[in-house]
Amino acid sequence: MTEKPKIAIYGLGACAGCDQTVVDLNEILLQLAETVDIVLWPLAMDFKLSRIQAMQDGEVALSILSGAVINSDHHEMAALLRRKSRIVLAMGTCACFGGVPGLANFCGREEMFNQVYRDAPTVTNPDGVRPQPETDVGGRKLTLPEFSGHVFTLDQVIDTDYYLPGCPPPPALIGNAITAVLAGDLPPKGSSLAPRKALCDTCPRNSRKPGRMDIRYFRRIHEVDADPDECFLAAGIVCLGPATRSGCGEACIRINVPCRGCFGPVPGGVGSAPKFLSTLTSLLTVERDDEIEEAIDSLPDPAGYLYRFCQPSSILGRKSLREEEAEA
Ligand code: SF4
Ligand code: SF4
Q1: Residue 142 sits in the same domain as residue 155
Q2: Number of domains, the chain
Q3: For the whole model, what pTM was predicted?
Q4: Is 311 helix (H, G, I), strand (E, B) or coil?
Q5: Which of 24, 28, 152, 154 has a CB 3.0–4.6 Å from the CB of 90, allowing a cystine?
Q6: Which residue among 238, 260, 307, 309 has the greatest number of ligand 2 atoms within 8 angstroms of its CB, and so is best to mutate?
């Protein structure tokens, strides 16, 4: 009997939402279980690391890795699965672009640890205890993975063959990606297995997007009673649709919430944040200094908003990595 192709599914630093979405493949997952041998999927089944370590290099047909690379354990698992796999798919926006965990790169390790373990209003930690890589407990050594000091995308630490963005990617795109890999029906290495268009191109509100807009300041979605058919941008509500890759089925737009950019940048551009800023500057119709200031002030936390999903893969992310390396 021919051996079934082996598949590994593993979550690095993230919320496990991408892994959960694989479960949402439902019947497809059951069919898949008949045709492949899932050798690693900690979310759904027990596994022994030694079994993966004992495999031949390249023995796994496909490793699907979600999550950003944040600590020493993630680095080791990513390297191990790269060695054992013929194809590595970065699944989800954290693996592809760094995702929400990547916002940690806006502050250094010290600042982030202080915030998380000392300064956050919900923290009670009078002794200032922090997680340690090694702790002696009754003569026994307990270990924890060590924080890298920087949040990395998957392809910043291992060679990555394909990308599937989304927070999380829709089950249909995950199913298509796995089917394409198993059938060997793949685009060139380095491709994203998601549509190439911008979200605006597939958005049902695009026909209500005027060619010329008159935006003087921005409003946040909770401040207005948004028209369910009107283009958000035309109403002065920040919507990252022009700079975001389509593929989500306009999930947020359809429930009257503007796009926050979770599918990452449109292909071939400078990144979603610079592209969106350039779109905004062309839409604003303010001229006087005070009007310009009012427009800028109406977008609170622009870095957090525009880089929410892609700081590590952006120019800013690469800059903060260089600064981190220089300080080390
Ligand atoms: S800006 Fe937003 S609401 Fe307007 S067309 Fe683009 S995705 Fe749709
Ligand atoms: S509309 Fe934007 S934020 Fe919402 S799921 Fe789609 S890409 Fe993500």
Answers
A1: no
A2: 3
A3: 0.92
A4: coil
A5: 154
A6: 260
